[in-house]
Amino acid sequence: MDPSGKVALITGAAGGLGRAFSRALLNAGAKIVASDADEAAGKKALEELEKQFGKGKVVFVKADVTNSSSLEEAFKAAKSTFNRLDIVINNAGIMRDSVWEKEIDVNVKGVVHGILLAYKYMGKQNGGAGGLVVNVSSVAGLDPVPQMAIYCGTKHAVCAMTRSYGDELHVNETGVRVVALCPGPTDTPLGRDAVQHCLHDYARQSMIDVTSSYGGLCTPDFIAEGLMTVIQEGKSGSVWVANNKIIKEIVYQRLVQ
Prior knowledge:
It is a single chain. The protein is of the alpha/beta class. It has one domain: NAD(P)-binding Rossmann-like Domain (Rossmann fold, 3-Layer(aba) Sandwich), CATH 3.40.50. The protein is 46% helix and 17% strand. The protein is built from 9 helices and 8 strands. It has helices at residues 16-27, 39-53, 68-82, 100-122, 149-165, 168-174, 189-192, 204-213, 220-233, and strands spanning 7-10, 31-36, 58-62, 87-90, 131-136, 176-183, 239-243, 246-250. It has an 8-stranded mixed beta sheet, with helices on both faces. Helix 4 links the parallel strand 4 and strand 5.
């Protein structure tokens, strides 16, 4: 998909990857609905984006991805402000096994809500024109990470849902393609604070070594480059990794036809 002229909704847009994603899409000619549960940070991000790209291209909506009705306000804003919605980026996430119930709510339920609302607002079966959903997973969704076992499980779930909802069974009915982006460890508050949020004290020391095993911290702008590649080239159901200066599709062996 060429993002120029399109409207993209981004969850978790107030900082870190969300802000980098917003800049990349605006640079490509898209308009943005930026949503985040942190209203103060969201308004600050809005001001910075408007200063750089001009007014009328971004709208901020406070939304909690764990609550479908709350998140739906961002979808309504896309329609009422820009009269269309083409891309949904389920980016909101936390890496805090110390509060694992909230982690599951944000990382798994939040993505489910985003996908189902994308079907509601973009799906052909509901009169929409179709579109694209990008689910942000992690390299922790591809391999075991024993230091953050629950976070790892949530990100594996995101990859599995992407591959399943990306199947032609859903695409043929809805016109909505679903792809996943798996960033490597990235220089964001989420990545930098991960060690202190390990559930098990004995895992914290080895967590420090995890980043180096993946090749160091990526920059948010590099991950945003990965996002743009996925938007432009990703086939529905595909899972992509952006890490250590490499952006590539992950090839799975399909066991069930």
